[in-house]
């Protein structure tokens, strides 16, 4: 058990991305959308959409989150976009797996009816303290065997329903995604809907450090082996390597909520005996400083590049030591990227392994044997005649730009309609979503791209 807990804790920096939601805007709302029948009971046939901006908008940017992420991590940058684009809405999609989460004490803490200590104990403290008997109950793999079939087809069918709603009354829809969400966006655009390409539903593509091509794809042999292995494994990705798939999302939600609920208080995680030494700051720190120290590109370990941002540094003095902002965003804004709205934080606790497997077969919309085996109908890679925008950070780098360029070349997209932004030397993977507006090159380049879609 101690080895399991230690392994859980070693992924803390990658996972403490949840946060208390900033004050809601009047135009922000969560809509539950009934989706086509999929694997599992009828109650799982729904997704939730965080809608921002005026209902009268004539243009909608639909955004798809990445691996183990959920809709509300787009919320801050979506607000920045809308302040610059009158007549637009942003719809961010929380996939069906997020309905499996227990958000009860997270919501209570955000509402001020649960203390930070209660929050920590309910979701994490019980792991090392058997006296805590009232705590979070993870979803057992055996209770959701159908989640092994929550792959790309399910995600695309669900997204198709959302896009159909967004297109009502003649509205234009631009589809975008971050990280794995970029692969899903490209999959949608190249998907075969009974002979009709998904690109015909869209007015443009926005790929944020993620795309579904330029990798060669998975072979049919490997896909068959991975499918067979999945039948004997958990339905969900195990980012911590502990056999507890939910732990990634729980760490994600709790750590940054502590940074926002009690930023100046001594770090609860820092005082946790199970926290591994390489994540422990060299001096006693506040909750906000513990968060910043773990996620900053300078102090976070290289293995956690997936979730790092340019934040700042530990202050030179103080007991406990506070955080000193000075990067692309204040630590509180980086935390708020994953802030929740009631019932939804910015992470997905139960990310389906099948979805990540299927994403490897998108192949820029060019047919492969693996696609036929997996049911990934991305075969219209030469029919995406849309304006395409791609933004690369230090994680996606040249691969993302090459994939976007490949898709444009296949579909004969004119050079004037292809926007490639390379910030691989200056931006980390989360920076496009978290950087302060005045420092955010994603915001500065995507807004002009969207303005041209009229």
Could you characterize the architecture of this molecule?
The protein has one domain (2-451): Alpha/Beta hydrolase fold, catalytic domain (Rossmann fold, 3-Layer(aba) Sandwich). It is 33% helix and 13% strand. It has helices at 2-10, 12-15, 75-84, 104-111, 116-123, 152-166, 180-190, 220-230, 247-261, 287-295, 331-336, 353-359, 369-374, 397-410, 431-434, 441-451; strands spanning 29-34, 46-52, 59-64, 88-94, 172-178, 192-193, 196-197, 204-208, 312-314, 323-325, 388-392, 418-422. The strands form three sheets. The protein has an eight-stranded mixed sheet with strand order 1-2-4-3-5-8-11-12, with helices on both faces. A two-stranded antiparallel sheet has the order 6-7. Residues 1-26 have low confidence and may be disordered.
User: In angstroms, what separates the terminal alpha carbons?
Assistant: 58 Å
* pLDDT < 50 stretches: 1-26
Radius of gyration: 21 Å
**Largest sheet geometry:** 8 strands, mixed
Helix content: 25-40%
Average pLDDT, all residues: 90
The number of domains: 1
As laid out across the biggest beta sheet, the strand order is: 1-2-4-3-5-8-11-12
What's the CATH first level?
Alpha Beta
Series of secondary-structure elements, N-terminal to C-terminal: HHEEEHEHHHEHEEEHHHEEHHHEHEHH
CATH fold descriptor: Rossmann fold
């Amino acid at each position: 058990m101690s080895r399991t807990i230690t392994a859980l804790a070693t992924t803390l920096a990658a996972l403490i991305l949840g946060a208390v939601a900033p004050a809601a805007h009047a135009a922000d709302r969560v809509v539950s959308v009934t989706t086509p029948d999929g694997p599992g009971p009828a109650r799982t046939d729904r997704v939730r959409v965080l809608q921002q901006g005026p209902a009268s908008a004539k243009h909608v940017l639909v955004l798809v989150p990445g691996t183990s992420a959920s809709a509300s991590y787009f919320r801050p940058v979506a607000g920045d976009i809308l302040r610059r684009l009158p007549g637009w809405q942003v719809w961010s999609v929380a996939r069906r797996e997020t309905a499996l989460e227990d958000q009860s004490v997270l919501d209570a803490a955000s509402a001020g009816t649960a203390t930070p200590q209660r929050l920590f104990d309910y979701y994490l403290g019980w792991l090392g303290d058997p006296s805590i008997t009232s705590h979070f109950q993870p979803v057992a793999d055996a209770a959701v065997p159908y989640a092994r079939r929550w792959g790309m087809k399910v995600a695309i069918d669900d997204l198709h329903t959302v896009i159909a709603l967004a297109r009502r009354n003649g509205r234009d829809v631009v589809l975008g995604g971050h990280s794995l969400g970029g692969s899903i966006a490209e999959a949608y655009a190249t998907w075969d809907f009974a002979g009709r390409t998904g690109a015909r539903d869209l007015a443009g593509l926005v790929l944020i450090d993620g795309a579904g091509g330029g990798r060669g794809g998975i072979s049919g042999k490997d896909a068959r082996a991975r499918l067979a292995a999945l039948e004997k494994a958990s339905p969900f990705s195990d980012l911590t390597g502990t056999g507890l798939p939910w732990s990634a999302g729980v760490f994600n939600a709790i750590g940054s909520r502590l940074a926002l609920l009690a930023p100046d208080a001594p770090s609860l995680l820092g005082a946790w005996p199970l926290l591994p030494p390489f994540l422990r700051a060299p001096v006693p720190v506040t909750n906000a400083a513990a968060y910043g120290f773990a996620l900053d590109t300078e102090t976070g370990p290289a293995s956690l590049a997936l979730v790092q941002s340019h934040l700042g540094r530990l202050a030179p003095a103080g007991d406990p030591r506070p955080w000193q902002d000075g990067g692309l965003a204040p630590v509180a804004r980086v935390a708020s990227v994953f802030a929740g709205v009631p019932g939804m934080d910015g992470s997905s606790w139960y990310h389906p392994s099948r979805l990540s497997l299927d994403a490897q077969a998108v192949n820029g919309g060019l047919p492969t044997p693996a696609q036929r085996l997996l049911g990934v109908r991305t075969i219209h890679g030469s029919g995406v005649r849309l304006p395409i925008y791609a933004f690369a950070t230090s994680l996606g780098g040249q691969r993302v730009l090459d994939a976007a360029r490949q898709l444009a070349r296949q579909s004969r997209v004119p050079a004037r309609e292809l926007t490639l932004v390379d910030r691989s030397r200056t931006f980390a993977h989360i920076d496009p979503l978290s950087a302060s507006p005045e420092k955010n090159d994603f915001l500065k380049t995507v807004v002009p791209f969207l303005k041209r879609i009229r």
